[in-house]
Amino acid sequence: MEALSYLAMGFGTALQPFNLFYCFLGVFCGTLIGVLPGIGPVGAIALLLPITFHVPPVAAIIMFCGIMYGAQYGGSTTSILVNIPGEASSIITCLDGYQMARQGRAGPALGIAAFGSFIAGTASLLGLVFLAPALAIFSLRFGPPEYFSLIVFGLSTLIYLAEGSMVKSMMMALLGLMLASVGIDLVSAYPRFVYGILTLRDGLGLVPIVIGLFGVSEILVTLEKGIKRTIFETEIKGLLPTLQDWKESIFPILRSSIVGFFLGIIPGVSVAIPTFVAYTFQKKLSKQPEKFGTGVIEGVAAPEAANNAASCGTMVPLLSLGVPNGGASALVLGAMMLYGIVPGPLLIQQSPEVFWGVIGSLYIGNAMLLLLNLPLIGLWVRTLKIPYSILFTLIILFCLIGAYTVHNSLNDMFIMIIFGFVGYLLRKFEYPMAPLVMGLVLGPVMEEKFRTAMVMSHGSISIFFRNPITVVLLAVAMLVLISPLFTKKRLAEGIKEVEE
Amino acid sequence: MKTKILCFLVVILVGVTSVGYAQAKDFPKKQITIVLGHGAGGGVDTFFRLFAEKLKNKWEVPVNILNKPEATGAIAADQVARADADGYTMLGNLIGALATLTVANPKSPIHVVRDFEPIMMNTYVAQVMYVNTDSKFKSIEEVIDYAREKPRELLVAVSDIGSNLQLEMLLLQRAANVEFTLVYHEGTREILTGLLGKHYDVGYANDVVGTPFVMAGQMRALASDIKSPLGCPTFAEKGYPVVNLPPIAGLLGPKGLPPDIIKMWKDAATEIVNDPDFVAATKKLNYTIVATIETEELAKRFKEEVDKFSQFTAEELGWKK
Q1: Nearest CA in chain B to A334
Q2: Half-sphere exposure of A319 (CA within 13 A, CB side)
Q3: With b meaning 16 or more CB within 10 Å and e meaning fewer, what string describes A119-152?
Q4: Which residue of A has its CA nearest to B185?
Q5: Which residue of B has its CA nearest to A324?
Q6: What is the domain class of B31-124+247-317 according to CATH?
Q7: Interchain contact, A408 vs B68, CB within 8 Å
Q8: Once rounded to an integer, what is the mean pLDDT over residues A393-403?
């Protein structure tokens, strides 16, 4: 098959020692930067872009792919070790990953994250190779009404599957949506909740809020319990996933790769949404759903696999249509243009060496990440042994730096601190924080799509029923939200909540 | 103990060497920063990065590009306006965006004419009206006729409010006495995917992003505001000369730059835009660079551009007060 021979050619290019070196450099720098809270793949590429100018084009693109993977993995590392997500898509990894770390199982968590990402990367690259053009065409059918339906569907299932009271989850989700409305509205350019503060015009910013809600609040809660208590199991129970871990994780990984890849293809859907969906999907299918959030390995395997698969998925519209999916792929597009390559529908035909070269380098980056990080797991895990009084000071320092570097703004640091306290209160009163973040992430997109759809239909709501995609998604969302009325168990839970 | 002393010495060394060369008489002696009020990977960003690469080779100092797209470039503009007028901190921004910032907010801390010294203005793209190749519209006349028959029926995808794309469509509506329904997006990506997926009737975007699709036969270019390599007629040729507001990327310094520094910048800019490598690189990306650097012509064009943007009221733009 022609595709395979080109793929071989791509690998041939990517495996040259010169290019391999740049791949290694990219993965290494990417991981280091990704470890800083708040800086994800996008920030890492933007920071390292100037270095790539001295490098020939093919090596530079290979380096970018390395940076992307490295930063993603760096973000996962901090999620697992200290409950601070590197970026939106790493939030989910915090839920179970951090709990595993507290039980002394940081090594297996990091290991399964690395392996899961690698397997997902392999699977999705195969998908990319064989399915890219057809998939790109399907993704075009998603217009504003379809996106809106997809997001409503995602948000509903997430509320439904959050543990504890659905009322509390809904409240948090709505709070997230409200917080997301701060800033300049897209359709009428009207400033909302800005109060004349220049930096608020762009909104509160996901990163400072997330770092505050998860990272800072965790420190506050731990400090309240007292530093002297042994918080982390000092006995590190093994550095790599056990056979049992593998048995529990392999299917979640494969399933999440598929979910992540296909959702990542849709232009405009960030990597965060496929990760959330894969986690909740896995929770639904798991034999022990109630244990999610306490440190089950599938809770780490699923989101890690999904976010890697989704990153590859975002390459589909870029490589087959020339349309970037926002964030990292927009930067890759910019980089390609700087080297004189203009991606478009004809890229595969006109410059097959570029297309296959990128595919090859994505794969090599994937493999390089695994090779680089496995030996480092032992090192990372040992950092947890640092006395907490020193550790938490360092963590707060990194959080502050991370919050600042997003926009070089002191205001972001204040926002982070405020939300640290908010997160503390939420934990004390047992309100789930994940729906709040989901509302924050999904809110702006949901609103924009809804209002755009309304403009398109001149105010008629019938546009949401124009094809099977929207109807099915909205119907399932509705069903999911009213289902507690019909499930005995949920009803009992709800009554208990009200009585308390 | 030894390590402590070593660390101390290293810190002192680093501190000493990072004292700036404030006494330098020659320009440039240290790193130059071009702050962009636009994000990485876009048209303005790509142009300035290519420019910076050439500048770095010419002046043999590091030239750093800093992206600060927040608050539609207001933060970047503010930073440069307040910077020392020594030629080391410059602004790269769409002139129209700066003008809009000034006009839209009377209390704005930055004023495009008062606070900046323009060095260079470039058009680099044309803005083009595209339709899907399956569309029934084969020419701009057909589009206008349809819009006249059915006011507000035609869905035209543009980018955000205040952008050159929106403003040109407003001008077209005024000149042809028709009404479209403009659909706003952040960035050009969704305009293209929306048009390809047939969610909109017409898409208005620049020629660089659209060229690959026209080449692939998926989209058709009906008209553009200035001459474009795509070869479609201009709006002026079709009887709407007022639709002439292409994005203009400007290189500006803070007001008060000494005349000899201005001259150095202008000379460098002139050399770079005429450099064959630079021209070839930009052409390969489908950019068409037309630069205005000469002082009198520049001042005239600058004023013209700012005036063009001041002709819209907030209501027309769709901003609510």
Answers
A1: B41
A2: 28
A3: bbbbbbbbbbbebbeebbeebbebbbbbbbbbbb
A4: A186
A5: B189
A6: alpha beta
A7: yes
A8: 82
User: In chain A, what residues touch B67 (CB-CB under 8 Å)?
Assistant: 46
What pLDDT does B131 receive? 94
Residue of chain B nearest A199, judged by CA positions: B71
Q: What is the pLDDT of residues A220-253, one digit of tens each?
A: 887 887 655 444 554 556 667 788 888 888 888 9
Candidates A140, A141, A404, A463, partner chain B, best to mutate (most B CBs within 10 A) = A140
According to DSSP, the residues that pair with B155 across neighbouring strands are B181
From chain A, pick out residues whose CB is under 8 angstroms from the CB of B319. 188-190
Q: Which of B181, B185, B200 sits opposite A458 (nearest CB)?
A: B181
Instruction: Kindly state which CATH superfamily the domain B127-224 is placed in.
Output: Periplasmic binding protein-like II (3.40.190.10)
* Domain limits for position A433: 2-499
pLDDT band at B321; cut points 50, 70, 90: very low
Q: Compute the count of residue pairs across chains A and B with CB atoms less than 8 Å apart.
A: 125
Pairing status of strand B63-67 against strand B32-36: parallel
What's the Cα-to-Cα distance from B249 to each of A130, A436, B48, B54, B291, rounded to whole Å?
Answer: 41, 40, 9, 17, 9
Closest C-alpha to A273, from A155, A171, A166, A176: A155
DSSP letter string over A202-218? G-S-HHHHHIIIIIIHH
Give the DSSP per-residue string, B93-161: EEHHHHHHHHHH-TT-S--TTTSEEEEEEEE---EEEEEETTSS--SHHHHHHHHHHSTTTSEEE--ST
Distance CA A262, CA A281 (A): 14
Output the pLDDT for position B20: 39
CB under 8 Å to B300, separation ≥6 — which residues? none
Residues of B in contact with A266 (CB under 8 A): none
How far does Cα A374 stand from its chain's mean position?
A: 21
pLDDT at B8 over 80: no
**Distance (Å, whole) CA B199 – CA A267:** 14
**How many angstroms separate the CA atoms of A259 and A306, rounded?**
7
CA A457, chain centre distance (Å):
32
ipTM above 0.90, yes or no: no
Neighboring chain A residues of B68 at a CB cutoff of 8 Å: 407-408
Quick one: how far is CA B4 from the chain centroid? Answer: 51
Q: In the structure, what pLDDT confidence band is assigned to residue B201 with cuts at 50, 70 and 90?
A: very high
pLDDT score at A232: 54
Q: Which amino acid is at B11?
A: V
Q: Which of A188, A326, A343 sits opposite B320 (nearest CB)?
A: A188
Instruction: Give residue-wise pLDDT tens across range A437-487.
Output: 878 878 887 888 888 888 888 888 888 888 888 898 889 888 878 877 776
Helices within chain B (DSSP H only): 2-17, 43-59, 74-82, 95-104, 140-149, 164-176, 189-196, 207-215, 259-274, 276-284, 295-310, 314-317
The Cα A269–Cα A369 span in angstroms is 25
Report whether the peptide linkage leading into residue A317 is cis, meaning its omega lies within 30 degrees of zero. Answer: no
Q: For A66-86, what is the mean pLDDT?
A: 80
pLDDT, residue B18, reads 45
Interface with chain B: mutation pick from A149, A331, A336, A342, highest number of B CBs within 10 Å = A342
Residues of chain A neighbouring B186 (CB-CB closer than 8 A): 186, 448
Contact list in B for residue A347 (CB cut-off 8 A) is 212
Cβ contacts of B64 on chain A, cutoff 8 Å: 50
The answer to whether A50 contacts B318, with C-beta atoms less than 8 Å apart, is no
Q: Where in chain B is the domain with CATH 3.40.190.150?
A: 31-124+247-317
